[in-house]
Amino acid sequence: MSLRDAWDRFTASQAELEADDEQLEARRRGTQPVGRCHARSRATVSGVIRAVTFAPAAAGPALVAELYDGSGSLDLVWLGRLEIPGIEPGRRLVAEGMITSADFGRTHATMFNPEYRLLAPDSAEATP
After folding, report:
1. I need a surface site. Which of 6, 23, 33, 117 has the fewest CB within 10 A?
2. Could you report the per-residue pLDDT of 74-99, keeping only the tens digit for each?
3. How far apart are CA 28 and CA 11, in angstroms?
4. Which residues on adjacent β-strands are paired with residue 44?
């Protein structure tokens, strides 16, 4: 680490440090940065769930998890679900699916009914 890198890390906010750590983990796993995903493209992303909400809709319930990877965030939406074991704030996962644009009343990128793999709490290994 150079002196400049050390200084930048020393003067960075906690949020900046956490964002850097999340981006490093995503690169290590070989997943795409959320901030570089494009609508109408398939993506494999990883990160930490920051929030989980239940969004009742006219067509049925939906479980929404905000996934953050340091470069940005996107909503993972499971239609027709009230809960999914393991999908909770603070949990890390890898998700794969089609990125949609900000539509259906969503404010940012969304992945509907993604395939996902929960990661063990203190490692990058998948849970059984």
Report:
1. 6
2. 999 999 898 999 999 999 999 999 99
3. 25
4. 96
Would you state the torsion angle of the CA atoms of residues 110, 64, 90, 12, taken in this order, to the nearest 10 degrees?
40
Residues facing residue 124 across a β-bridge: none
CA distances from 103 to 12, 45, 60, 111 (A): 35, 20, 17, 11
- Count Cβ atoms within 10 A of the Cβ of residue 46 and give its class: 0-12 exposed, 13-18 middle, 19 or more buried: buried
Structural domains of the chain sorted by starting position, each given as residue range(s) with its CATH number in brackets: 3-118 (2.40.50.140)
Cut 0.90: pTM above it: no
By the 8 A CB rule, do 22 and 69 touch? yes
